[in-house]
């Protein structure tokens, strides 16, 4: 067998759709790695395992998952939104804070004032915290710059942070996060700037692979998002959307019509939206952190998504305002406790389905031959413990690109 290293005696949670056991379990199997790629997934008695003379790691019956993908973060920002949180605790709604120029726009002021070096220094601990829990692929959005220069500054910072931590990056231009103050009352003009200048610049410099929008009553209308998506696609970028978070604007149908990678939040998604996602193969990304921090009552239609066979992912939405926490395990836990996902669905939501939400289903998210050799060895008695037990991270080993990394 042409491989450099072998992990044996593992309980592989492959999430390979071809394996019918829960979690795609291959109990006691071995994982062979060549370079940075999974070369073979072998039963314990395979002759290749016995004949192998290279480096062997005995997992001692521990559980192995694919590396995690956090498919929705805004982890580049400066400043603090603790005051927003305090106001919300006394009953001021998120929408009211936004209208007063707080919320996203207060992070915009602080982020514009920060240098790229400052943004990198602030973001490094956030990404390191995600990586320490097993994130090997992260999506990072712009959206607190809202000028061409500041949006590109954020995207360059994202690239540096991911490079420094050694995590695969999927960068997203979210210029349509809020209407900046200098365009107040002229949202359509700002959308024109996004389409004619920001998207072309991000594409040209290869700083983003997707374009996101905040399709909401307090942000951008479906018609404005439609223009942005058309421009994104004309520049070869994928599309996705923050949709149906606070109201139902039928943003999911719009993203589905554009063949988008994912729709995110979805608290107010209706039956027509679910059907559109099922038909388009768009991933439904659940963000229970924002639901929790905003003390929302409206739950996303998990049962309908499940019944329709829409792939569901789970992400942190790590941001300074509505989801200020850097833990994908807490996000999974919230998805189970608050939304009723099963632990297997939560784990599938940060592996196979999160990779699909980032257009990386062919390279990430399962333990299958040809996938990138990013995997996690867990010292737990049951896979659900990865989602259930918080506070101590029971990771025994973290392998990225075929190499064992520190914990
Ligand atoms: O995903 N919904 C819009 N964007 C973020 C919130 C960002 C912020 O409040 O700074 C979200 O929840
Ligand atoms: Fe978000």
Sum this structure up briefly:
The protein has 16 helices and 16 strands.
CATH superfamily of the largest domain, by name, is Metal-dependent hydrolases
CATH class group of the largest domain = Alpha Beta
Residue runs with pLDDT of under 50 for 5 or more positions = none
Cα-atom radius of gyration: 21 Å
Approximate helicity band: 25-40%
- Strand residues, percent: 15-25%
Mean pLDDT: 97
Q: How many individual domains?
A: 2
- From the coordinates shown, what is the CATH architecture of the largest domain? Alpha-Beta Barrel
Specify the overall morphology: globular
Number of helix segments? 16
**Ligand roster:** N-(iminomethyl)-L-glutamic acid, fe (iii) ion
* Spatial gap, N to C terminus: 30 Å
Structural class: alpha/beta
- What kind of sheet is the major sheet? 8 strands, mixed
Find the CATH topology of the largest domain. Answer: TIM Barrel
What does this structure look like?
This protein has 16 helices and 16 strands. By secondary structure, it is an alpha/beta fold. Strands 1, 2, 3, 4, 5, 14, 15 and 16 form an 8-stranded mixed β-sheet that branches. Strands 6-7-8-9-10-11-12-13 form an 8-stranded parallel β-sheet. The chain has helices spanning 47-51, 82-89, 94-99, 104-113, 116-132, 148-165, 187-204, 222-234, 251-257, 271-280, 288-293, 302-308, 328-339, 343-350, 352-357, 385-388, and strands at 5-13, 25-34, 37-42, 55-58, 63-66, 68-70, 135-141, 168-176, 210-215, 238-243, 262-265, 283-286, 312-314, 375-378, 395-400, 403-405. The model has no long low-confidence stretch (mean pLDDT 97). It folds into 2 domains: 5-65 and 366-405, Urease, subunit C, domain 1 (Roll); 68-357, TIM Barrel, CATH 3.20.20. Fe (iii) ion is lined by residues 72, 74, 242, 317, 319.
């Amino acid at each position: 067998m042409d491989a450099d290293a072998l992990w044996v005696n593992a309980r592989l949670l492959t999430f390979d759709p071809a394996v019918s056991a829960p979690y795609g379990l291959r109990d006691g199997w071995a994982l062979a790695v060549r370079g940075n790629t999974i070369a073979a997934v072998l039963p314990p008695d395979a002759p290749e395992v016995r004949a192998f003379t290279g480096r062997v790691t005995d997992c001692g019956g521990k559980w192995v998952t694919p590396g995690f993908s956090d498919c929705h973060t805004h982890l580049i920002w400066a400043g603090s939104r603790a005051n927003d949180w305090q106001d919300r605790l006394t009953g001021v709604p998120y929408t009211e804070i936004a209208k007063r120029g707080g919320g996203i726009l207060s992070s915009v002021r602080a982020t514009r004032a920060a240098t790229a070096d400052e943004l990198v220094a602030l973001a490094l601990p956030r990404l390191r915290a995600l990586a320490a829990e097993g994130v090997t692929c992260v999506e990072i959005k712009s959206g607190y710059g809202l000028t061409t220069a500041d949006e590109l500054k954020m995207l360059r910072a994202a690239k540096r942070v991911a490079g420094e931590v050694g995590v695969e990056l999927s960068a997203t231009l979210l210029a349509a996060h809020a209407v900046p103050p200098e365009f107040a009352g002229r949202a359509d003009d700002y959308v024109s700037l996004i389409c004619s200048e920001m998207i072309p610049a991000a594409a040209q410099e290869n700083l983003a692979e997707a374009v996101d929008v905040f399709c909401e009553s307090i942000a951008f209308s479906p018609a404005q998002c439609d223009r942005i998506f058309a421009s994104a696609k004309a520049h070869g970028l994928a599309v996705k959307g923050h949709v149906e978070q606070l109201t139902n604007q039928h943003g999911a149908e719009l993203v589905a019509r554009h063949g988008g990678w994912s729709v995110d939040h979805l608290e107010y998604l209706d039956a027509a939206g679910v059907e559109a996602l099922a038909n388009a193969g768009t991933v439904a990304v659940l963000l229970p952190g924002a639901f929790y921090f905003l003390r929302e009552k409206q739950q996303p239609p998990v049962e309908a998504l499940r019944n329709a066979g829409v792939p569901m992912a789970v992400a942190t939405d790590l941001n300074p305002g509505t989801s200020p926490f850097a833990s994908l395990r807490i996000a999974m836990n919230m998805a189970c406790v608050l939304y009723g996902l099963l632990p297997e669905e939560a784990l599938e939501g940060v592996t196979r389905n999160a990779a699909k939400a980032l257009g990386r289903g062919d390279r990430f998210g399962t333990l299958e031959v040809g996938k990138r050799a990013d995997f996690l060895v867990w010292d737990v008695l049951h896979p659900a413990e990865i989602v259930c037990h918080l506070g101590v991270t029971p990771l025994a080993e973290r392998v990225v690109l075929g190499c064992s990394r520190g914990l």
